[in-house]
Amino acid sequence: MSALSLDGIRFYPDELRDLAVAWVALGVAFAVFILDPPVSPALLTDLTSPAFLRVLLVSMLTVGVGFLLHELAHKVVAVRFGQVAAFRADYGMLALCVGAAFANFLFAAPGAVYHRGRITERQNGLVAIAGPLTNVALAAVFAPLLLLEGLPGSVGAFGVFINLVLAAFNMIPFGPLDGRKVKDWHLGVFGATFLGTVALAAAALLFVGFPTV
Questions:
Q1: CA neighbor of 114 nearest in space, from 80, 81, 74, 82
Q2: What is the pLDDT of residues 154-202, one digit of tens each?
Q3: Which of the residues are catalytic?
Q4: How many Å apart are CA 164 and CA 160, to the nearest integer?
Q5: Predicted structure pTM score
Q6: Helix (H/G/I), strand (E/B), else coil: 107
Q7: Distances in whole angstroms, Cα of residue 34 to Cα of each of 18, 56, 171, 190
Q8: Domain locations in the chain as residue ranges
């Protein structure tokens, strides 16, 4: 199977596989975690119940889409700067993510976009910041659904909440997270983005709360 090209951005077969697997694994993990009552590993029939399938749909449309577009934003900006970039899933971490959800513990490190080529510190910072800013934009897209009831309202609430939390978490200036790369590039941009995403996440927690599905 040859690479898929969209608007000059090449997606490789193993990359598309990794994106799909990570999307599904994160969707399942978050659905297992937030389902009330919790799914038990001994009760795998719960995974085919209407309640779980409803939560899984919400999770895939919010957590899954938030993760997917966050990573694709990194890739697109990196390619625009002349990089060779591709997402690589961490299958061990994805398995741990799903297993932890059954233990009622949330942990997510699905993988990352790796890019290579000559790049400046500024360009590297812009590649990093693209992910969290995409999550903020997605939260704005989900926000109008908060006015609706039923399944659309649940998608809106969880979409706003999870995307703002993802944005703030990824701006932490630690280890492989985006915040460290942005901080290394420009302290002022980092400070404004970090404080802004944390404030938005706090507002989501205060006014939306952890959504129920």
A1: 74
A2: 899 999 999 999 999 999 998 889 999 999 999 999 999 999 999 999 9
A3: 71
A4: 6
A5: 0.89
A6: coil
A7: 24, 10, 24, 32
A8: 10-119, 139-207
